[in-house]
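Lab notebook, bench 4. Still working through the backlog of constructs that have no structural model yet. Next entry is a single chain of 171 residues. Request: give me the structure tokens for it.
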Amino acid sequence: MCLLFMKTQFYSLSKGKFGKRLLIHSISFGVGIGVLLGLVRILYNIPIVYFILPSYTLAIILTFFSSEAILHVAWDAAAVTTGPVTVPLVLGIGIATASEVKATEGFGILALASLYPILTTLICGLIIQIPFIEKLVYSGPVSDPEAEQMMESLLKSDDENIELKDYGTMS
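Model written out:
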């Protein structure tokens, strides 16, 4: 649900330049890269520092060159990837792989799966700012009826539909 809300918001914030599908694909690609690098780390027993430090350094450098709209959504992409489906799946893959190859620990796979969507979204944001590429990926006008309808329904406060339940006092 967060990703659906994020993509409609971001489509409007980027003035139609960063399409909804491009956002979802960049986040998905980032999760895939992160899981792959996490598995490589487990299989070859590479210290996590060799992955985390260069990646965060690159993310911070890309942050300085990104537009504000892309910047905020890219860093929020990490939170979107730590949902109720991704975390158990990624941790299960990490634990199973670590136990099969007799690794000492499987730490870091989830950290990398949350870090790389930030990088891929920042990189996509910088790529679409190139004038030639911008003309190829421009999605059209910003007005999106689906996004506007979703925003209206989410922001509309209708007190009649709010059901309050009394759970008693805490003892």
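Notes after review: The first helix runs from residue 2 to 13. The radius of gyration is 20 Å. Flag for follow-up if needed.
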